[in-house]
């Protein structure tokens, strides 16, 4: 990417550092008025949404691994964006809860509901449906997080602003928490970043798969008020990209990688908050694994992120598995063989299968804990069957009429 394009994108992103959702959010969750319905009806390509959800059903385990082991830690490497996550505290103090919530959000977005099959002109992302409601609830949560930081953490936020001015005087401002650039970066991580990981893991996909995936996240982004007119203006049109964001949105397979590259260049730097967040994530992803596999989440994360970003986050090394993966990822010639040539097929297969295994174990643990009174975690029966995730809950046998309870026959 040439320097002029990089500078142009950076200047446009600078305008979004203080831009946040200004609309009245009280009715955003259940809002299904005619204006909103019509706006999303014009936006949503039903076939592409269903295509993306089918792609997730087929390759959900490596895709979920890409999100948990690449997209999330990638966002922690953005030191400015990590500040609000650190201030809210829950991600560190209760990592299991927040990782589950993230995984649940992703699965909800990508799961086709039974009503989709009954109603041919509606998907789970249409207004009033489960995916749309989950995205809009997250929009309201983001507004609450901004208000909380502004009310209770003003001094700490201002101190962080001064810190970044000193250590990176030519970098962007800290801006508002969860501003539009932060959210645009998140969307790019869940699209461009995921396919970067799928390439490394050797997961097959077509151009149609990629276009459908990007389209689905464009819809999700509109529900979340990312770059939309109604996020900038009280009377703005929902599901329509604001003029200030049209350089980055809607997401496009051919150009979005350039935008993400600029965002990474602007924001990636070492920070205590990023290291704390990524190690809390690793602790939750590895706690339920057998002892022999416990080092693997860190190895996979380093492999997918690359040496530079992994070192920036302070992800620990160790074990022959990590060293083998790091060698494949850091040597250009070997990495090219692994990603594209037939001789790399065994390495791709082993890495992809292991990533699917550790992700399956994590989801299995979430399901079992939910069944035994732990945090809720919903996974449809179709996804459970596709991914080999069972249920530990056994149906109770009916009590026969002659059963003995204590000394009494009932």
Describe this structure in words.
The chain is an all-alpha fold and 410 residues long. It has two domains: 3-273, no CATH class; 275-373, no CATH class. The chain is built from 20 helices and two strands. The chain has helices spanning 3-14, 34-43, 46-76, 79-88, 90-93, 95-109, 114-118, 130-152, 154-167, 180-201, 207-223, 229-232, 256-267, 272-286, 296-305, 307-313, 320-330, 332-340, 345-371, 381-387; strands at residues 404-405, 408-409. The chain has a two-stranded antiparallel sheet with strand order 1-2. α1 crosses α13 (256-267), α3 packs across α20 and α15 (296-305) packs across α16 (307-313). The longest helix has 31 residues, at 46-76. It starts with a helix and ends with a strand. Mean pLDDT is 84; it is low at 330-335 and 394-410.
Fraction in beta strands: under 5%
**Largest sheet: spatial strand order:** 1-2
Output the radius of gyration.
22 Å
Total of DSSP H or I helical runs spanning 4+ residues: 20
Using DSSP, what is the number of strands? 2
Shape: globular
Helix content: 55-70%
Largest sheet: 2 strands, antiparallel
Which ranges are low-confidence, i.e. pLDDT below 50, for 5 or more consecutive residues? 330-335, 394-410
Q: Please state the structural category.
A: mainly alpha
Whole-number tally of structural domains: 2
Q: What is the string of helix and strand elements?
A: HHHHHHHHHHHHHHHHHHHHEE
Q: How far do the termini sit from each other?
A: 79 Å
């Amino acid at each position: 990417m040439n320097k002029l394009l990089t500078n142009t994108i950076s200047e446009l992103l600078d305008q979004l550092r203080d831009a946040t959702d200004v609309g009245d959010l009280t009715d955003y969750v259940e809002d299904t008025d005619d204006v909103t319905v019509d706006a999303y009806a014009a936006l949503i390509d039903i076939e592409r949404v269903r295509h993306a959800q089918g792609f997730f059903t087929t390759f959900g385990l490596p895709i979920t691994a890409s999100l948990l082991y690449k997209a999330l830690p990638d966002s922690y490497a953005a030191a400015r964006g990590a500040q609000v996550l650190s201030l809210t505290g829950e991600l560190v103090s209760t990592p299991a809860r927040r990782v589950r919530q993230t995984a649940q959000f992703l699965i909800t977005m990508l799961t086709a509901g039974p009503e989709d099959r009954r109603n041919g002109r509606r998907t789970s992302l249409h207004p009033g449906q489960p995916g749309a409601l989950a995205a809009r609830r997250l929009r309201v949560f983001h507004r609450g997080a901004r208000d909380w930081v502004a009310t209770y953490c003003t001094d700490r936020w201002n101190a962080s602003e001064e810190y970044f001015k000193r250590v990176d005087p030519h970098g962007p401002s800290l801006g508002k928490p969860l501003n539009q650039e932060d959210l645009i970066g998140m969307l790019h991580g869940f699209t461009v970043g995921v396919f970067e990981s799928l390439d490394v893991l050797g997961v097959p996909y077509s151009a149609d798969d990629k276009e459908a995936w990007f389209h689905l996240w464009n819809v999700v982004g509109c529900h979340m008020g990312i770059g939309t007119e109604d996020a900038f203006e009280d009377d703005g049109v929902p599901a329509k990209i604001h003029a200030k964001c049209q350089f980055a949105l809607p997401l496009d397979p051919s150009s979005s990688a350039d935008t993400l590259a600029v965002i990474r260049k602007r924001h990636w730097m070492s920070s205590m908050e990023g290291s704390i967040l990524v190690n809390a994530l690793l602790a939750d992803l590895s706690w339920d694994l057998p002892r022999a596999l416990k080092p693997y989440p860190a190895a996979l994360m380093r492999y997918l992120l690359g040496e530079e970003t992994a070192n920036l986050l302070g992800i620990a090394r160790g074990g022959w598995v990590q060293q083998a993966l790091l060698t494949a990822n850091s040597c250009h010639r070997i990495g090219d063989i692994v990603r594209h040539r037939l001789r790399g097929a065994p390495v791709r297969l082993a890495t992809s299968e292991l990533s699917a295994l550790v992700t399956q174990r994590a989801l299995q643990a979430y399901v079992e804990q939910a069944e035994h009174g732990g945090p809720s975690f919903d996974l449809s029966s179709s996804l459970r069957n596709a991914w080999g995730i069972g249920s530990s809950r056994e149906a109770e046998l009916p009590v026969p009429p002659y059963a003995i309870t204590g000394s009494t026959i009932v």
